[in-house]
Each structure stands twice: as structure tokens, then as C-alpha cells.
Amino acid sequence: MTSRQPAHAALWPLRFISIEAVSGVVLLAAAALALIWANSPWSQSYEALWQVRPGLGVAGLIPPQDLRFWVNDGLMSVFFFVVGLEIRREMHQGVLSDLRVATLPIVAAAGGVALPALLYLLANGDPATRRGWAIPTATDIAFAVGVLSLIGRSVPAALRMLLLTLAIIDDVVAILV
């Protein structure tokens, strides 16, 4: 029985990579399908789907919510928690544990927030539209992770952490503004 455990442990990274790659494909395919569906003659059925209230209320503690709530506030919270744990692990044991290495994604994230905001302000002279300057500062970390998962572990750990850290810091700053 114990002779099978080392083989099982040795194969775990291969199974994880395949699961991670599949999740990236599913994410990108679902996004493409949603874009096509939302912009098709059947767009009202797409909007109606988001209004469905699945029976996920918790015994009066959480009132029944629509599907949009469960995706935006439920699943995305779990997603950010998992990505945050990965960043934390890298800060303590991995490529971000060295302050010199961690400085690059932090500076890049600052530029990733400032440059889109500046370009937006330069392109919009109307004071009413200039108030939307914070909108282009956000990146979509879910798509960044999806693309990284498609590429797989062939991406060096340092580059993976740079992109994940950049996306997370950029999203946090965008939420704060």
C-alpha cells in the first residue's frame, strides 16, 4: 500500500497542471459564450438567467439572492482568497520573499493603475465623463489567471508571481479608488 503513495504523490503535479489548464479553457470559453449570447437576439434570456434565484439562502441568515450575487460576491470572494493565499505563500517562501524581487510587481502595478487613468483623462475633456477615470484602472485578474493556466507551468515561477501580484495589486487599488 505504501509503495503506491510515492507514485500517487509524484503524479499529483501532472494532475494539477491538467486541471489548471482545463479551468483556463473553461473560463475563456464561458466568457466568449457569454459575450456572444449577451449580444445576440437571445440577450433577454441571458439577462433572465442572472435573475434566477437558486435556493442557496442559509436558514434565514442569508436571504435568497440572484445568480449575479452568488457569482460576484460568493465565487469571486473565494477566488480572491485562493489567489491571495498563493501570493502570501510566495511572499513567505517563494519568489516574492525577497524585497528586491517584490518591488518590481508593486511598481508595475502602480504604473498599471496610473497610466490607464492618465490616458483616460487625456482622452476625455468633458468634466462629466472625466469622473469615470477609475474604470480603466482595473484589470481582470480572473482572465490573467485563466491565460496563465492555459500556458501552464512552463511559465517561470517569477513571471507567474509578477503577473499575479501585478493583477491583484492593480485590482485592490482600483477597488480603493
Shape: globular
Instruction: Just name the CATH architecture.
Output: Up-down Bundle
- The figure for the number of domains is 1
What is the percentage of strand-forming residues? under 5%
Major sheet description = none
H and E string = HHHHHHH
Determine the mean pLDDT. Answer: 77
What share of the residues lie within helices? over 70%
State the end-to-end CA separation.
Answer: 56 Å
Q: If you compute it from the alpha carbons, what radius of gyration comes out, rounded to the nearest whole angstrom? A: 20 Å
Report the CATH topology name: Na+/H+ antiporter like fold
How would you name the CATH homologous superfamily?
Answer: Na+/H+ antiporter like domain
What is the name of the CATH class? Mainly Alpha
Question: Could you characterize what this model shows?
Answer:
- With 177 residues, the protein is mainly α.
- Helices cover 74% and strands 0% of the residues.
- It is globular, with a radius of gyration of 20 Å.
- The protein has helices at 4-38, 43-51, 67-93, 99-123, 127-130, 141-151, 157-176.
- It has a single domain, classed as Na+/H+ antiporter like domain (Na+/H+ antiporter like fold, Up-down Bundle).
- It contains seven helices and no strands.
